[in-house]
Write a structure and sequence with these properties.
13 helices; 8-stranded mixed beta sheet; 3-stranded antiparallel beta sheet; 2 domains; alpha+beta
């Protein structure tokens, strides 16, 4: 996923304009390009997919990339928060496109499609039509409409029932959350953020076709696809194989940071018990912060179009109402003490049932929930 550049816009404009009535030559090939995961940022961790159109006779060597967005578009950050992410199809010089992934040591695989000249022309015409300014934008969805899902979707739009994606190679389908976890081994904070913000829809078992929200599975899917009964891929080319690299998460990981915090909260609780005085300032900050997290999760659930953020069980421990009691701890009332008792009960049940919940809650949050329970209990007993 990339921000558009001036060169990309210029290349796209000239190729689309030049190719409006362009007939591909017999030398033309259309391929699916799969680029490997990166570790530069969370959004690079899943890899990337694109079409390549190569026609040396007509001087075409273009990547059709559905993963481009523009930070300068009006209200970009507001739209991103609300789930109205506008992405676009960009037509880029393939050599420049490929170089970026090689530079960052991310593998590049090419699957040359087994198409007749007429079929190539039909697919090419659709891509050119899709690249026009009035057609190039779409609303991005992390799992159901992204730069990877566009490829099988478009092939099916162009060829209809003639193309079949055989998902029988997936012996044990995974949930969407489990699939994302496969790629976030070296992004522990990103993994936590995704698990925290996205709810029950992430835990549904994905169909074989839905596995293709990930570029690697797009590659597998095309490997097992057919067109009119013949293999859809006629040749695979390893354009660049990534060099082995060593990655380490170090000790600054959520589970270690949160465990240390929980130990400090427990030590403070013991100290408070001995001196028979409660550190209200700590509970105000702690419950206030957790309340803000809960409010964010609730708004993502009810006030945005992020479908995967719905029905988020993390609000069971990150209650938005903690924002209110965070202020009231300085002037305790009887109902506030009862509130903290309810929090203790909810959190205790949550911790006992953690491994059996329908939503997989991130294990590193356990120390936070324990700390909340301990501090809620001491507020109840005051």
């Amino acid at each position: 996923m990339k921000k558009r550049s001036g060169f990309t816009l210029l290349f796209s404009y000239f190729l689309v304009t030049y190719s409006l009535a362009q007939q591909l030559s017999n030398e033309a090939e259309i391929s699916v390009i799969t680029c490997g995961p990166g570790q530069e940022a969370v959004f690079t961790a899943f890899g990337h997919s694109a079409f390549r159109v190569y026609d040396p006779e007509n001087g075409i060597n273009a990547a059709f990339n559905y993963g481009v967005f523009d930070f300068d578009q009006p209200n970009f950050y507001l739209n991103f928060a609300r789930g109205h992410n506008r992405y676009r199809l960009a037509v880029q010089d393939f050599e420049r496109f490929e170089y970026v992934y090689q530079y960052y040591n991310r593998y590049v695989h090419e699957q040359v499609l087994n198409l007749t000249l007429e079929q190539k022309q039909k697919l090419f015409d659709y891509l050119i039509w899709n690249a026009k300014p009035e057609n190039q934008f779409y609303f991005y969805d992390y799992f159901y409409d992204n730069c990877a899902t566009k490829l099988p979707e478009i092939v099916q739009k162009v060829f209809g029932e003639e193309v079949v994606f055989d998902g029988s190679y997936i012996i044990k389908p995974l949930s969407i959350r489990a699939l994302t976890d496969l790629y976030l081994k070296y992004q522990p904070w990103g993994d936590l953020g995704i698990d925290l913000c996205l709810g029950l829809p992430m835990d549904k078992i994905a169909t074989p076709y839905e596995h293709m929200f990930l570029p690697d599975y797009v590659e597998y899917g095309f490997d097992h696809a057919s067109l009119n009964g013949e293999s859809l891929v006629k040749q695979k080319v390893i354009r660049y194989e990534a060099r082995p690299e060593t990655f380490s998460n170090g000790i600054f990981q959520p589970v270690y940071v949160f465990s240390l915090f929980a130990l400090l909260a427990l030590a403070l609780t013991i100290y408070d018990s001995k001196r028979k005085k409660i550190s209200n300032w700590f509970d105000a900050l702690f419950f206030g912060l957790i309340g803000l997290v809960g409010l964010l999760l609730f708004l993502l659930w009810v006030a945005t179009d992020h479908r995967a953020a719905a029905n988020n069980l993390n609000v069971l421990w990150a209650l938005p109402t903690h924002l209110v009691v965070a202020i009231l701890v300085f002037k305790p009332r009887e109902w506030v003490k009862k509130y903290f008792l309810i929090v203790v009960i909810i959190n205790a049940v949550l911790l006992i049932s953690w491994a059996w919940l329908p939503q997989m809650l991130h294990f590193s949050l356990v120390p936070i929930v324990i700390a909340l329970t301990v501090r809620a209990y001491i507020q109840f007993r005051r």
